[in-house]
Amino acid sequence: MKRVYIDTMGCQMNKSDTERMLGMLSHLDYEETKDPEKADLLMINTCSIRQLSEDKAFSAVGTWGKMKKEGKKNIKIGFCGCVAQQKAEEIFKRAPYVDFVLGTHKIYSLPEIIKRINNGEKVCECTETHSTEDDKAKDFKINRVKGVNAWISITEGCNNFCTYCIVPYTRGRERSRLPEIIMKEAQDALNSGYKEITLLGQNVDSYGKDFKDRNYRLADLLRELNGLEGKFRIRFVTSYPTDITDELIDTAVELDKVCEYFHIPMQSGSTPVLKAMNRRYTRDEYAKIVAKIRDKVPDVTITSDFIAGFPGETEEQFEETLTAVDEFELDYCNVAAYSPREKTVAAKWTDKFIPEDVKDERFQRLNKKIQENCLKSNKKYVGREMEVLVESFYEHKGKMINSGKTRNFKTVHIPCDKDLTGQFVNVKITEAKTWYVKGTI
Ligand code: SF4
Question: Which of 89, 109, 125 is the last residue of a domain?
Fold first, then answer.
């Protein structure tokens, strides 16, 4: 066996791609190692959402390049993921020790690439695929990271072209994977003991829009998955606000395995900023969607993403984001200070860029607001009994802790000496913290 080390940066889509790549490599007799020093093949699966992530990727491969130069001549280095898709051949100029560059559209060519680099070639595979039928039907072995939650990618790419976002350029247009392939992956994951399936995509609610031979959408997929035998949970991320249909909300209420959790990026609380971002909804429309979900789904948790300091954002417009977090009772949210990305429309609006110190200050204020809201929301559950799926077991300050999630995505810490990983337990919530609650069985 040869050994491969993969450093995965960025979002769950990348983690899912890494699992697929490990699966393909296992057919070529590679086993995963967590130690780069022991690897024959070193790969980085990059994220291009912020400049900082891109810089970190080059710094990591720089270290591997040094290892190669200083004696480990036989190691091979692969540069994969979103930065690879975007920069392609340019990567060889900046990092000449890299043996192959593999974009997000071409991960299925990995086995072929490995053969070619082992014959001494340098390979760059980043051509954008517009023919989508191939992707939909792809079935491959996946080496899942051991755990409780199996992530299953159901769509790739995005058609929305938000003015700040690089994803449509790095991941291409939206393609839905065939339901029969997804169902097989889900059944395999359940057979291997996974207790939670998370359907993954940049825009899961538009799943199936591109099918020409059938009328099959996310609600249909959820119904089919819910029918699989055994006790397990189903989640889906990420939702685009205006793509969430009444049917989808009703399905989430009706199906016992689908959890009370929606992740709906709002990005800004100000309608003019949303317009500049090319988000296709207003603050009021977002409010209506959230109200509808809260009305129908008891105890639902709604989380979101926000950008602080988008080009041209005024102080008043930023304050509308702060009020949105309160008004819509948004729980845990990811916040990013705006970072211009090459090729995107907003990156050209340099005259409207917000000074770094102002962006940073808004970033801090928004995070503080979100922390306050998380604590407020967590306090609502003190005294309640909730079902928790235990995900990990570890020692903290001399005590053993089981940590897991409720159906509505609250993290629960349960002091208990017995490892309950993978089990569903009923827990009485006793105390609320900012990012989690404590409870007893
Ligand atoms: S919806 Fe917008 S932010 Fe999300 S991936 Fe697509 S372009 Fe990017």
Answer: 125
Spell out the residues 6+ positions from residue 7 whose beta carbon is closer than 8 angstroms to its own: 36, 42, 43, 44, 45, 60
What is the domain extent for residue 233?
133-379
Distance 242 CA to ligand 1 centre (A): 13
DSSP label at 267? B
pLDDT at 142 over 80: no
Q: What is the CATH number of the domain that holds 84?
A: 3.40.50.12160
Domain boundary among 360, 379, 398: 379
CA of 202 to the centre of ligand 1 (A): 7
The structural domain count of the chain equals 3
Both 117 and 138 in one domain: the answer is no
> Cα of 338 to ligand 1 centre, how many Å?
14
Give which of 160, 185, 147, 214 is closest to 389, Cα–Cα. 147
**346, 389: one domain:** no
Q: Are residues 397 and 368 in the same domain?
A: no
Q: Which of 25-39, 176-190, 280-294 has the lowest mean pLDDT?
A: 25-39
Considering the domain architecture, whether residues 196 and 322 belong to the same structural domain is answered as: yes
Task: Answer yes or no: do 82 and 212 share one domain.
Answer: no
**Quick check: CB of 164 below 6 Å from ligand 1?**
no
Among 404, 396, 391, 409, which Cα is nearest to 439's? Answer: 404
This prediction has a pTM of 0.82
Provide the pLDDT for residue 271: 98
CA of 168, closest atom in ligand 1 = 7
> Is 174 in the same domain as 38?
no
Could you give the CA distance from residue 171 to residue 427 in angstroms, rounded to a whole number? 41
User: How far, rounded to the nearest angstrom, does the alpha carbon of residue 382 sit from its chain's CA centroid?
Assistant: 29
Which residues touch 32 (CB under 8 Å, ≥6 apart)? 3, 4, 5, 6, 22, 143
* Helices of type H across 227-352: 246-254, 271-276, 283-296, 315-327
Rounded Cα–Cα distance for residues 353 and 27 (Å): 48
Segment among 49-58, 87-96, 417-426 with least mean pLDDT: 49-58
pLDDT tens-place string over residues 55-105 = 999 999 999 999 988 888 889 999 999 899 888 999 999 999 999 999 888
Q: Is 218 found in the same domain as 69?
A: no
Please report the atom of ligand 1 found closest to the CA of residue 240. 1
Which protein residue's CA is at the shortest distance from atom 1 of ligand 1? Answer: 160
Domain with 318 in it: what CATH number?
3.80.30.20
Q: Choose the residue to mutate in 13, 158, 237 for probing ligand 1, maximizing ligand atoms within 8 Å of C-beta.
A: 158
User: Reading across the β-sheet that carries 261-263, which strands appear in turn?
Assistant: 261-263, 301-308, 333-337
